[in-house]
Write a structure and sequence with these properties.
The complex is a heterotrimer of chains A (about 270), B (about 675) and C (about 450). Chain B is mainly alpha-helical and about 675 residues long. Chain B has 25 helices and 7 strands. Chain C has about 450 residues and is α/β, with parallel strands linked by helices. The chains are: A alpha/beta (about 270), B mainly alpha (about 675), C alpha/beta (about 450).
Chain lengths: ~270, ~675, ~450
């Protein structure tokens, strides 16, 4: 069994804040981390390795320092790490990103047939949830998004049965491999790397693939291959915290305000 | 004929004894290397004070019983030496010592009675008023009976001899003479026969006793004094620094991975239970019992050393090979293993190490077992994963954005040493002081004091990082190692020489742990600084805002760093010269708040909450204010006071807050 | 002979970064630089090599955050001033050709793509509200463009939804029906959607950003090789360019970005439920229904649905997944008082949780504990009742979308993170709120 897991290096957006005076993004000291959703994808891949002896390849597209997120994946058990890094890949939107990732995984598939491609449900910086499906379409394999449980795997028949989490219900679906799955955070708890694992990861060679290897038409990747463009960026209006008195005569007003918020936030409707 | 038999028995017994001793030495040598041969003079001094002087033993009243037993034994060692030699060479006698001999025999006679009395008392204590921390073991009774019979045999024997007029120092042996009174009228023959019977009983019991020692908890008779000699000079809160090289094993999962002194520790335990009596975990019905942990270490060592020796001649005094197979795992698996639960129960408060009469070092052993669980197995209570990742990624335990670290100082105009401000002191705020809204009040209080006293100080602002205390105590040495190195590099970069901390955990980490990483800062706890500012008249607290104050000694300030008087001086100065009230357990005996050793970040599911136990104790002192000098203690007491529904009448305050509110 | 004044070359300046404005968009500036003068540093911010920079301003234009500017040395500024006084600045130095990469596919015939389409998401024949909300927005967009608004629906026996779509403002409705389409599966819905889009060529395609919608939208956009903007909170038409302006939060909601799909069609966007208002249903409004056949058979679809589980009963509580949490702390005083919180939670579709103290006291089980040693939650709404907000609690809930805190102590740290803080007695406020909800007859929004 060969599993490819996609990981992305993202800025830790929970540490990003807006300067209230200049209204600009404060990114000072904001570190880059593995997209949290991807850590669940890596964990799930390693569970396939533990259970079925799968070979796990981690793939990332990003700048050279994205190597660090691949090393993290290696530290908990990933066998091979590939970084797709090229100036030509820069500025890509989700479509151009999935073009590059899709082709890279196709190349891996030629070396050793890929049974499962695993991605996080979405990234914390983009929140689009589009790259997973994009990869599936590029590779022309079945896509299963929002998987929150792998029910069973039949290694002989090469089928997998999983559960998908949708808003008000769950689906149990069975498909033949190969398949692309994006996973929910609830699917597992990522393991903590052991020190021998980390030391091993420090020494592992991360393969760098540039467009010289992938040979993609420059017009289909990076900025030129991205159909969406950012026109402008601005700070959102922020709801300021409001403190009100809720005692004595103010009580009714406070309760009214509270109820108004329930309506505002679409919790209840009348 | 009788002499020949005795000679054979005696030789056999000594051969067996020395074989066992050699094996014990070989077992100790299985441990890893460590230099404990430095400072020989102070080691000798300690050995005399704590080994022969029994200073820690007599800290408890019943310790005097042991003290007398011990000295009785010391006296009798010489007498018994004469006894054994005389058995083989009847002409031998210590009488050549002249008057000294008579003094010796006089003392031995008296001491034998004293020992007999002590034995009776000890048996009675175990039978009728046994403290909960002492286990009822057959071993203990057997030993006591052996000692008792040895004494009875001695009196029997010497009384007969006295009657037979064969006792050289008989005149001076008052007790013997007293016993001899009962033998008046016995004829020579029966006296002689009885003497031989007593003599043989004495000889057999003596030789048996000697050989039984290595198999019982009374092994400490042989190991305790060396253990006092090899004790650590300071209270040990730290673990050895590790080298993170590929192929190494990190932490301890096999008993032979301990250092040799740790193995000697295991052998030195008397199971006196004093550690159990003071342990916050044991006191609140947790799994951890330090006494049991040491005992488990000992039986684990003896079981596993057998298989190591089986694969290797025992007469080789060398560490166990790296790949030595163990029959019984050290962690979890049998009653000869330490349970994982126990390992995570420890608050590393050091109370056990403080009371141990023979200087066993419990906490570093536990931390090193944690190291194995964390670094090799990634097995730890699940709530710690957030702490580990937050500490590594955001350099604070809560995972708050590092850019918020200096928020507390936003309106306070605090100088930043990172912006080139020259300051004498760096105030290392610490994570709690920077992020926790309650602890931030302490930070601002200290800011006020520093400014009022005209101290030249600054902070690192958002560049400050977590010191890594919790990571180290929880066994995440790899991440701690990185944090320590980065911190030291940064502090050196800004040319920091003197550091003020408010958190005792930062204090001990920067001061003691970082030494292993080449740091040499002058680290000052705010209690030290404030007390010296008051002494120098730089600040003049006007008295009384806190009412009746009861003080809590935090473990890492008191036990580990000996700062007991400074916080008291500070409170005294703020309460018109009145010393703060003390709890039942105070100073060296202070009871942990429950948050040390990384327990702050863990769920406490078993037994009574440690902080409640301690808060109730504090409330018994009827205070208006509970004074602390640690952000963890602050959190725990605040919870405790609320739980006890005492928040309306009792305030929990850091000493800096008490000072700040009493200066204008 | 009169000497001609020396022609002064107009200084073009060098690009430079404005501190603090870069958002690390992914090296758009670097991509746009024709002379490789920009390198990205570890923070993913550009470093301009002034020796190489030719002052072409391409990067300045490429930057979505206006984080790059042109910089002139004092000498250059002096020169510029001189030129200005000579009036030379009036003539452009070099007309900068607006370079747009010619992209393949649908670009050349953008004009052929017309109309606004909305995907009607349905489950067992019931439409998701977000579809109607999108029709409301779609109506505005279509009117701005002067084109038709169409709904399209896939499923088995779903024609009635097409009819319903007219009531919500659609001019046209396309329906594709087949037993194969009864339940959503990516493969079948993707094939159907792509077929319809390729045949009728709408210029805008909107879907709900639900689990289903996001699954389908990503696949469709990839197959159509077009742009897709997820989770939009605002949609407008730039009438001059006849283009859809899609505004969405990025960077974990810290910034808003307006995104365009200029060169490809359709312009696809997804919108989260309850972001757009639902239009009023107009009884009797009709439109044109176009039915399209669906060719695929069951055997052509790889994925098989084994089971659909609708109820979450019997499952242990999972406060991580809860959208609304009603949380109680020390001030709740007793287990009995938690019943009031449960009553409120039931009324608003929430789950009860609590602080460590609430667990300690045995008022809630450990699975419901929020905080450092409990769960970290990010619900839509977090109501903190009598929780003071010690740091151990705050780290577990401060990323909630909206926080209402009720506490007697006006200095409680919980108010530092609360969006709406009420200083008062929970035992008065909560019952009053329950009463208020009951009186108003408010229903939970599904």
């Amino acid at each position: 069994m060969h599993i490819v897991v996609c990981v992305k290096m993202v800025p830790d957006t929970t540490q990003v804040s807006i300067d209230p005076v200049t209204n600009t993004l404060i990114r000072d000291g904001v570190p880059f981390i593995t997209n949290p959703y991807d850590t669940n994808a890596v964990e799930e891949a390693i569970r396939f390795k533990d259970k079925y002896g799968a070979f796990v390849t981690a793939v990332s597209m990003g700048p050279p320092n994205a190597e660090s997120v691949l090393r993290k994946a290696v530290s908990i058990g990933t066998d091979r790490a590939i970084l797709l890094s090229d100036r030509a890949f820069g500025g890509a939107d989700t479509l151009a990103t999935s073009t590059v990732l899709g082709l890279a995984i196709k190349k891996l598939n030629e070396e050793q047939p890929v049974d499962i491609v695993l991605c996080g449900k979405q990234t914390i910086d983009g929140d689009t949830a589009q790259v997973g499906p994009g990869i599936a379409r590029r590779m022309n394999i079945t896509q299963l998004t929002l998987v929150d449980e792998v029910v069973s795997v039949n290694t002989e028949k090469k089928t997998i049965r999983i559960r998908r989490k949708l808003e008000n219900y769950h689906e149990i679906i069975e498909v033949k491999l190969p398949v692309m799955m994006t996973v929910e955070r609830e699917i597992n708890t990522p393991r903590y790397p052991t020190v021998p694992g980390r030391l091993h990861a420090d020494d592992v060679r991360v393969e760098i693939w540039s467009n010289a290897q992938l040979k993609l038409d420059p017009a289909t990747i990076g900025l030129p291959g991205s159909p969406t463009q950012v026109r402008r960026i601005f700070a959102p209006e922020r709801e300021k915290g409001e403190i009100m008195m809720g005692e004595g005569p103010d009580r009714t007003k406070a309760v009214e305000a509270c109820f108004a918020k329930l309506l505002d936030r679409d919790i209840v409707h009348v | 004929m009788e002499r020949l038999i005795f000679l054979i028995v005696c030789l056999g017994a000594f051969a067996f004894f020395f074989k066992n001793i050699f094996r014990l030495v070989a077992t100790i040598c299985l441990g890893r290397a460590e230099n404990r041969f430095d400072n020989l003079w102070s080691r000798c001094a300690g050995m005399f004070a704590y080994g022969f002087g029994q200073l820690r033993v007599i800290q408890k009243k019943f310790g005097y019983n042991h003290y007398l037993l011990f000295w009785g034994f010391m006296t009798l060692v010489l007498v018994n030496f004469e006894f054994l030699l005389k058995g083989i060479f009847p002409a031998f006698s210590l009488a050549f010592m002249g008057p000294l001999y008579y003094i010796l025999m006089f003392a031995a006679d008296i001491m034998s009675l004293v020992v007999l009395g002590c034995v009776v008392l000890a048996i009675a204590r175990r039978l009728f008023f046994r403290p909960y921390f002492i286990d009822q073991t057959a071993d203990a009774f057997l030993i006591l009976c052996l000692v008792g019979s040895l004494m009875i045999a001695f009196f029997g024997m010497s009384a007969c001899e006295y009657r037979l007029d064969e006792l050289a120092a008989g005149t001076y042996m008052l007790v013997t003479r007293g016993v001899a009174l009962f033998l008046r009228g016995s004829d020579t023959e029966s006296l002689h026969a009885s003497m031989r019977v007593f003599w043989w009983i004495h000889a057999i019991v003596l030789l048996f006793f000697m050989n039984y020692l290595p198999y019982s908890k009374h092994l400490h008779v042989l190991t305790a004094i060396p253990n006092c000699f090899f004790r650590s000079k300071h209270m040990v809160a730290t673990v050895p620094r590790l080298q993170f090289k590929k192929g190494e094993e990190f932490g301890i999962s096999k008993v032979v991975q301990f250092r040799w002194k740790d193995l000697l520790d295991f052998m030195s335990c008397t199971e006196c239970g004093r550690c159990q009596e003071v342990c916050p975990a044991s006191n609140t019905q947790k799994t951890l019992n330090p006494k049991k942990m040491v005992h488990q270490g000992k039986v684990n060592l003896f079981t596993n050393s057998k298989s190591v020796f089986a694969n290797r001649p025992a007469d080789m005094l060398a560490p166990a090979p790296k790949d030595a197979a163990m029959n019984v795992p050290l962690i979890n698996g049998s009653d000869k293993s330490v349970s994982k639960k126990a390992i995570w129960d420890c608050t590393t408060c050091g109370a056990c190490m403080q009371v141990c009469p023979v200087f066993i070092e419990h906490a570093p052993k536990i931390v090193q077992m944690r190291q194995h669980l964390v670094m090799e197995k990634a097995e730890f209570p699940e709530e710690l994963i957030a702490l580990f990742e937050n500490s590594e990624q955001r350099s604070n335990p809560w995972g708050i954005a590092p850019s918020d670290r200096a928020k507390w100082a936003a309106d306070l105009n605090v100088p930043l040493v990172t912006q080139g401000v020259q300051a004498e002191y760096l105030f290392y705020v610490g994570c709690a002081g920077a992020f926790d809204s309650r602890a931030r009040q302490v930070t601002t209080a200290l800011t006020k004091i520093l400014n009022a006293a005209g101290v030249s100080w600054g902070i690192l602002g958002n560049e400050e990082k977590c010191c890594g205390d919790s990571m180290r105590r929880l066994g995440n040495e790899y991440v701690f190692d990185k944090m320590a190195q980065a911190n030291i590099e940064q502090l050196k970069k800004y040319g920091i020489k003197k550091i003020i901390t408010y958190c005792p955990h930062c204090y001990t980490t920067l001061k003691n742990d970082y030494k292993q990483f080449g740091a040499d800062f002058e680290v000052i706890h705010h209690s030290e600084l404030i007390s010296s500012l008051i002494a120098a008249g730089k600040i003049n607290p006007s008295s009384d805002s806190a009412g009746r104050v009861v003080i809590h000694d935090s473990c890492y300030l008191g036990r580990y760093n000996n700062l007991y008087d400074q916080p008291r001086d500070v409170i005294k100065a703020c309460s018109g010269g009145r010393a703060p009230a003390e709890m039942e357990r105070c100073r060296e005996k202070s009871f942990c708040c429950g948050a040390g050793g990384g327990r702050m970040w863990m769920e406490e599911l078993d037994g009574k909450r440690i902080y409640l136990e301690r808060t109730q104790e504090a409330l018994r002192a009827a205070p208006d204010t509970i004074a602390v000098a640690c952000p963890y203690c602050l959190t725990m007491y605040e919870d405790g006071v609320k739980d006890e529904k005492a928040a309306d009448r009792v305030k929990v305050k850091d000493i800096a807050e008490i000072v700040a509110s009493s200066i204008s | 002979m009169e000497q001609k004044p020396k022609k002064i070359k107009k200084p073009r300046g060098k690009a430079r970064l404005i501190e603090g404005k870069c958002i690390a968009c992914g090296a758009r500036c670097q991509m746009s630089c024709p002379v490789d003068a920009i390198e990205m540093n570890a923070k993913e911010e550009p470093v301009v090599d002034t020796a190489k920079c030719i002052g072409c301003t391409k990067c300045v234009k490429a930057c979505p955050a206006d984080a790059l500017e042109m910089f002139f040395t004092p000498e250059e500024q002096a020169l510029l001033k001189e030129l200005e006084s000579q009036g030379a600045a009036a003539e452009p130095d070099e007309p900068e050709a607006e370079s747009k990469q010619p992209a393949g596919g649908s670009e050349s015939n953008i004009a052929l793509w017309k109309g606004v389409w909305v995907f009607i998401e349905q489950f067992e024949g019931h439409a998701h509200d977000v579809s109607w909300e999108l029709l409301g927005k779609g109506r505005v967009l279509a009117d701005d463009l002067g084109v038709e608004l169409a709904a399209f629906v896939l499923g088995d026996n779903v024609r009635h939804l097409a009819q319903e779509a007219f009531g919500y403002g659609a001019d046209k409705a396309y329906s594709m029906e087949s037993p194969v389409l009864k339940h959503y599966r990516t493969e079948s819905y993707l094939r159907g959607t792509v077929e319809l889009v390729n045949k009728y060529k709408p210029e805008i395609l909107l879907m709900g950003a639900t689990g289903l919608g996001r699954d389908l939208a990503g696949a469709v956009a990839t197959d159509l090789k077009t742009g897709l903007t997820a989770d939009c909170t605002q949609l407008d038409i730039d009438k001059k360019m006849r283009i859809l302006e899609q505004t969405r939060p990025a960077f974990g909601g810290n910034i808003m970005a307006t995104i365009l799909t200029e060169t490809r069609r359709p312009q696809m966007a997804s919108v989260r439920p309850h972001v757009m208002p639902k239009p009023l249903f107009q009884q009797g409004r009709t439109g044109v229904l176009i039915e399209e056949p669906f060719a695929l058979q069951e055997d052509d679809i790889a994925a098989k649905i084994i089971e659909i589980i609708k109820s979450s009963e019997g499952k242990s509580v999972n406060i991580n997944a809860a959208k609304i949490l009603v949380s109680g702390g020390r001030g709740m005083l007793s287990k009995e008082n938690f019943a009031k919180l449960q009553e409120l939670a039931d009324l608003i579709g929430g789950v009860v949780s609590g602080s460590r103290c609430a667990f300690d006291e045995g008022w809630i089980e450990h699975a419901r504990q929020v905080g450092q040693t409990g769960k970290t939650v990010h619900p839509k709404l977090y109501i903190a009742c009598a929780i003071s907000g010690a740091i151990q609690h705050l780290v577990g809930m401060q990323d909630s979308e909206y926080i209402i805190a009720i506490n007697k102590d006006k200095n409680a740290p919980i108010f530092e993170v609360a969006h709406l803080g009420i200083v008062g007695d929970v035992f008065e406020i909560i019952p009053d709120l329950i009463e208020k909800i009951k009186q108003s007859g408010a229903k939970i929004v599904e």
